[in-house]
Amino acid sequence: MNKFFLFILALFLILLPPVIADAADISEEQTTEKYLGKSEEKAYKKVEVVKQGQRYKTKLFVAAIQGYDNNVFLDSRREHDTFSEGILDANVIYPLNGRWDVIGGVSVHDITYWKATDANLIDTDLKLGFEGKLLAGMTLTAYNDIEMVEYQANDDGEYLGDKAGIVLKQKLPNNFFHSFGYEFFYKNYSDRKARNGWGGLSDEDRADNRNTIDYELGAYLKKSMFKVFGEYYLNNSNDIYLDYYDYDSVRLGSSMIYLITDKMSTYLSYYRQFKDYSDRTIPGDTTYGEKDRTWVTTASLFYDISKSTTLGLNYSYRQNLSNNPVQKYSGTITSLGLYCRF
Hints:
Blueprint: H1 2-10, H2 31-34, H3 38-44, E1 49-50, E2 57-69, E3 81-95, E4 100-113, E5 121-133, E6 138-151, E7 159-171, E8 176-195, E9 201-220, E10 224-237, E11 247-259, E12 264-282, E13 285-304, E14 309-322, E15 329-341
Antiparallel strand pairs: 1-2, 2-3, 2-15, 3-4, 4-5, 5-6, 6-7, 7-8, 8-9, 9-10, 10-11, 11-12, 12-13, 13-14, 14-15
């Protein structure tokens, strides 16, 4: 209860200057956050194409990105490399009646590093959901997302996951909006056994359960959209050695899209994450649990070449401060992408 109460109060502290921030394990815990094009994908999946003479709608998003990462594995080695990234996201929306739609889709996300091949991955999602209009300007979305993450040279990080959740959005007066979401995320690491209490391998595959709640509040202005958001999740794993993957996470942040001209826009985001581990201790002192604090800022500039094609220049900086010296790191990602919507 204290954790949840802290999460609610912390929404008022977003604008405080960052002091410390939280660790990421690219092969496991922060795989999704490491994806380099997700913010651009979310900002620019706007265009719907309605097929003539057909009831269903389709959305297709394709992106090709080239970039440079100066800390591929987010550690003190600071191994840097150039990468290529591709995104394909296709969705079909079928109206059941005037209020409810069925949504199905598939997305494939590929990241290929030229030298640091241990970080190469393909992430595939199969999605099915329902979306409906409720009273008082509310929209309810329920979804299930089966996710498969495969690494070129890191079998331990591969998993098959299942996400199930709901999102309730509501339009408010004066162009404001807010939303509340809950998600349960199950991950099974089929090529990695869970450790027992003394560090040996058990007969069971490692499996993680994550429960997440999130809230966002935003406003549409004349030439911009601004929002603040908060997220709390609890990760619980059957790998019981030091409860290494059991932790609480609170993430607070804000983002903005601003239209500079009819063809040019900018995207800015910032968040802080506070991660406290249940029983994972720091090296050399078993009386202190590990605490990680991360802050991430992203800036993007987009130019619309045509109605359906956008060129984007992106920069992201991440820093983690931890009482575990091994988990301290910083890194930047710079990329240039071409985004197409059909």
